Amino acid sequence: MQQNKPSKLLVKLSNRLFDDSAEREKFIEAIVNPKPFNPCILWRKEPPNPHPFIVEKPIYWQPEFSDRLAVETRPGKHPLHEKGRFYCLDFSSIFAATTLLTITKPVNLVLDMCAAPGGKSIFAKIALEPDLILCNEVIGKRIGMLMSNLKRCEISPAIVSCKDSNILAELIPKTADAVLVDAPCSGQSLLAKGGKAVGCFHPVNINKNANRQKRILANSGKIVAAKGYLAYMTCTYSQEENEKVSEWFLSKFPEFEPVAIPHLAAYQSHLTEIPCYRMFPQERIGAGAFTILFQNTSEEKSERPDFDIFNSSGFTYL
H or E stretch including 177? Predict the structure, then answer.
């Protein structure tokens, strides 16, 4: 079988990510000659007995409400999917969202800033059991898909909005106990799944995404209540969109501190000293992800969420 050749930009990225030549080769191979990964699901309700799928042995950090299935499984075709019993979510996304499992205090309001198609919102609902979850998506054409998934999985009470992050920062400052930012990125890990991400390794594209991520993260930080949390994650590999963005955020918002995640210690990024975590495709459990959890250490009194504001135009209750 003919092997695909890596682009010069991919080789350059691999050289920056890994000092070990063998690891660089494994990384490049996973990108240019992708192989299927195990499909995964989040159980919204208890799985039936007997279990409808062949399930792989769980990894130690894997949430109890998730299952990693045999490679050939097509869970989206199963009748239980249409009934909302589970949601199909990439295992890399599950990895990234597990930082939320360290949040133990009662959660009043959760904001998912970049929510479509809804997987992280559903994860947050199951993991944190908030009084209310606000699912925001700035791209209008994705709202229908988001609402459909939330309704199918019975995510309630929930509110859907289509607002820029700076608008939400003005409307509900210092109110959310947890804010999720699954940031728009260059999407380099799509290649490891056999997908397309045109120009994903080009510096101009990477820098454009990094600047957008900084803007969204800065606005999101303004919404986090005192002692609240901000979860930042991407599905790309470049440092400029991951560690560098995280370091920038900490320099601009000194009241925030990164939170060490004990169950992800083995995945600590070797590219920085701050606690943040990576999954690479050559590990063969997921296409790749970056994740970090910040906590607002400020003693300043937080604003009490005024849920009446969600009765105004631009917010839809589910």
Answer: strand 176-182
Residue 67: what residue type?
Answer: D
Around Cβ 174, how many Cβ atoms within 10 Å?
A: 19
Phi and psi at residue 257, to the nearest 5°:
-130, 145
Domain locations along the chain? 91-305
Burial of residue 262 (CB within 10 Å: 0-12, 13-18, 19+) is exposed
Cα angle for residues 232, 234, 236 (degrees, 5° grid): 150
Give the model's pLDDT for residue 164.
97
Phi and psi (nearest 5°) for 94? -60, -45
Q: Give the CATH fold of the 91-305 domain.
A: Rossmann fold (3.40.50)
Contact yes or no for 276/243 (Cβ under 8 A):
yes
Q: Is the Cβ–Cβ distance between 81 and 149 less than 8 Å?
A: no
Whether the Cβ atoms of residue 181 and residue 154 lie closer than 8 Å to each other:
no
pLDDT (average), residues 138-154: 97
For residue 99, give the DSSP letter. G
What the block records as the tokens of 204 is: 């101009």
Give the residue among 205, 233, 199 at the shortest CA–CA distance from 114.
233
Query: In whole numbers, what is the pLDDT of the chain averaged over residues?
Result: 95
